[in-house]
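[retry 2/3] Putative Ent-kaurene oxidase: previous attempt timed out, resubmitting with same input.
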Amino acid sequence: MSYAEILVPSVRNLFAALGVAIACFFIWIIKAIFFPPPPPKLDFPVASIIPGNLTDSILAARKQWPTEPFVLPMKPQSWVMLPHSMMTEIKSQPEEKVSFKKMSYERFLGDYTGLGQSKSPAAINAIKIDLTRSVKKILQDLQDEAEYSFNKEIGVLPTWTSLPVYMTFINIVAACSGRAFVGLPLCRDKEWRDATINFTYDTLGSVHAMKKYNKALWPFVARFVPELRKLKSYREFAARKLDPQIQTIIRSYKDKSMGLKSDEANADMEAIKHNYNLVHWTIGQHDHPELADAAEVGQMQMTAAFAALSPIGMSISYAIFDLASHPEYADELRKEINDVLAQEKPENGQLQKSSLPKLRKLDSFMKESQRLNPPFITTNTRVVTAPDGLTLSSGHTIPQNVIIAFGNPFLPNSEVQYPPLTSPSQPPLSNFYPWRYSDLRQIPGEENAHQVYLLHRKFRLKVVK
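[retry 2/3] Putative Ent-kaurene oxidase: success.
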């Protein structure tokens, strides 16, 4: 038998197999696009969506169904909105039943953007343990960086000058968060700051770009989405920029484990001395710090920047707009800060950790601004992870993989009643009243409540006719 007689049938078989594979692929694609699996059955009333106004849609539906869940039609998946009386119940559920991590991973397409891919607890422990423990030092660093950034981004303006508020403060927030995350001198590196800002924008852009396509096509179109290709370049950039600092930190850990004294005269070592930040803490939380990887630490840094920049930048921008709309409160806020500094007499002239609880009016102003301009339409958003679904105290069962959330409880037209915030003696929620929360903290037993970083858990509903 000749070589040709052997080759021809083999080639025919190869093409036949390839043809079958291609046919199966297209059948799978057609089935996934045109005959997707049915969504979980949700036996709840369905809200009507007001075009372009999701907030009012939620408020209207909550008024119609004040004490029961309802479905909020969303793409690509409907959400179940829960009554606020269940907020404590949901917050107490373990990850095995409802998960914020999984919700965030899926919402921001972690398979493609990389957000949430790291399974290492090092970064989370670094924030929960080391950052919390170092608030006193970090507060001084942040004030130093804020002063530097304000002088750089705004400076001394002899006359009224127009500034783009959001972009100006995003740059300031990027510098200040960078001081806590990567320390000096990298936090003042323009390339680093621009990369952290653009990573945030391109991550959101990637999500929007991918959701233009059917979910079945995502694995195939991902490599062609420009924003996703940029995300990879940011991660590589972060690893490259952080590598000198990481190698110096690792070297100091190795020296310590071997009982050696690090060469403090070394320029790299001097750069990290007394400059502890999230990079240090993340490496320190590793089981084996000497094996820390620059790529992983860089990805964690970009993820931390993503979580911080937009919400904080937006909250500060709204507070600036509210102060510009109500300039009559500026002198009172300035007086409070000066009074606290005069009382504490700090040697460096900066606010101390002990100063923060005393800035009641400033805290109240920020919280009132955030109440009227929340960074997110919903709060306490989770995805049900329990295999048999989540059974609520009301008897309702929500199937696995369904997203649940609560509407923001403190909006002007919200039906939620939370004494003493909504007591008749308080100004109506429809008004901007900057001392709303500082007034509430004068009530016995409420002195440490109603602060901008605290979320109260006690809610009850009252049907308002």
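[retry 2/3] Putative Ent-kaurene oxidase: Residues 389 and 399 are 4 Å apart (CA to CA).
[retry 2/3] clearing retry counter.
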